[in-house]
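Appendix B. Extra example for self-study. Work through it before the problem class; the solution is given directly after the inputs so you can check yourself.
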Amino acid sequence: MSFPDLLKIPKIDKLGVQEIVNRFCKRSIKTSAKKHGLHLALSMIDLTTLEGKDTTDKVRRLCYKASHLHNSLQGLPNVAAVCVYPTLVRVAKKELEGTKINVASVATAFPSGQSTLDVKLSDTKFAVNEGADEVDMVISRGKFLAGEYNFVYDEIAAVKEACGKAHLKVILETGELDTLDNVRKASDIAIYAGADFIKTSTGKISPAATMPVTFVMLNAIKDYYKKTGIKIGMKPAGGISTAKIALQYLVMLNETLGYDWMNKDLFRFGASSLANDVLMQLQKQESGYYQSLDYFSKD
Amino acid sequence: MSKLNLSKTWNYAAATESTNHILLKEKYDLFINGEFVKSNSKKYFDTINPATDEVIAKISEANKKDIDLAVKSAKIAFRRWSKLKAKERGKYIFRIARMIQERAKEFAVIESMDGGKPIRESRDVDIPLAANHFFYYAGWADKLEYAFPNKTPKPLGVAGQIIPWNFPLLMAAWKIAPAIACGNTVVLKPAETTSLTALKLAEIIQESGLPKGVVNIVTGAGNTGAEIVNHPDIDKIAFTGSTNVGKLIQKSISGTKKKSTLELGGKGANIIFEDAAIDQAVEGIVNAIFFNQGHVCCAGSRLFVQESVANIVIEKLKDRMSSLIVGNPLDKNTDIGAINSKEQLATINKYIKIGQEEGGEIYQSKCSISKKGNWCPPTLFLNVSQSHTIVQEEIFGPVLAIQTFRTIDEVIEKANNTPFGLSAGVWTEKGSKIFKLTQELNAGVVWANTYNKFDPTSPFGGFKESGFGREGGLHGLKAYLKFE
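Solution. Structure tokens for the complete assembly:
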């Protein structure tokens, strides 16, 4: 692990990125390819609840939904993980016992990250001790925008160490980074500092995940892989609410990083309402007609 | 460097555009004086789907007598058309534009069937742009005095227009729209391998009620074109096609009063500097050379990469090429379609062979290609120099010759070191560098941080052996007017 060479970080042309993203969006995904894509999308979801009003019961219900997505459809995968605040990790862990669904916890003074390193580290350690398999940390955007890249790097590296065996996802909060050049720079810093995944957003800032931002991050992952052979994961989060958008993201992934990344170990969707839309589309693939949303449980 | 696994990826199921909604006749006759009439030659030739080798329709072959009739009808129509209120002329052209939009899907499917280009391109580029050209020039029809203040613009008369097979409907629009907006009348000949959309356009023109004889569309091969060029009552020749034919046309019309604009071949230099946004530049290389299977006169067929980033650019380009989908032009996911004709495929293969014989290092992306039809995988040549044939001559296919450079002066010299001068691309994040290159490159179009972008408001044309005269924009009007 070393600090990335900032001089060698490729520049990003925003219009060029938009152009290729538009091209991905025009791919036509039908029949067997669609079914495969929808199953894949479902298996990559981090079912998320991150609200001040979250309670033990709310998390329990969400966990049950996570392992019983839609009983009337056969052969469905489970979602990848349930994502909650640190204080609710224990509840989720217990509910998900016996399933292969991971528990992810946000940490490090989520969502603003405005706290001291000590607090962030103890937040992280708490989440891990409670049983979190994955930790979603936020970077200090203020420091990043002030040009204190070493600070941001060191912080990520420290949190990574505090994570122990838990996987670390680093949230860049791209909605606050302003430019795609910044997104690329932050991606490289996070990757070099030890992130297992890089993630777009907290979901608390608009815009959350967008395809151009995700594309830039995928390219950072690609360049790092080409250089080191190490595969970093990607998690767009927030704003991906329909199956159609999810498939567009998968097309982008497929054509940028390819087969090796097309699984939940290296790609996730952070989403709260995506699952039901994907289920509705899968149901339609089976039966040929759309069911009312009332047939899909909301938890 | 670690390799990405882009080939064994999620395969998209076929998403073929339906052909149920299109109306095609078995035989197409000539469109002269507002009617479809049988040719005097009584001969028909086949138009073939280059992706399947199937015959789509039979096209009439026009001979001297037919051209006589077409030119005569255009000449008679000119008397009234040129005197019609300009606003009324505009209305007809607006109507044609709207009708193309209404039938855009049908046009797109036919364009892809007849020419082999992917439906993604005919749907998103060719047809909308063709309609836009009619819209744009319709607007100019009654504003010519404002376009050229203190001059009195007058139409030329009968324009003979000969167009190529790479953008059949779009080229017809480029030619017809400004000509008739300025009050000229037209005899247009589409290329023999791709006549269908021009003939469908003739149907629209007929429906639109455009006065008879203003636009005549005659079909046939080179001989038919020669009859148009040599006809004494033609006042202007507008030609888009190969440099060789352009030279022949110039010879034939020398000593006559015929005016001409020629838009000929090219060997566009696409220049990537080390300070460019590399990933987007790589995408730009793909757009520059693989757009429309490389059948583009302004294609960026010579790539110049600054040495410090050459390895990374080529590595990324190879990756990108492996995710391009080559196949059925009617599949909505196809990136690269079929080569337009057997003849063109032979030409491309000839150059690929020459490239290898002269010591170029070839790289082709892997793709499964059907036995029927004409196909050429995206191809790169490395280790070539300005002295290689494939760097000097236009190939008109998906074949890219890659060279490296060290300094800005070196690349300007190399980019200009060609008989052509149609287009160039510059990729850098530095604005001052862009301005330096746009000044010093001898090319009609220089794109900065993009490539192959077209717009009716923007003039297009070449220097040197890429031709003369401009099409598009205000400049495009000038080519169809005289000033008294």
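Self-check: DSSP finds eleven helices and eight strands in chain A. If your reasoning did not lead you there, revisit section 3.
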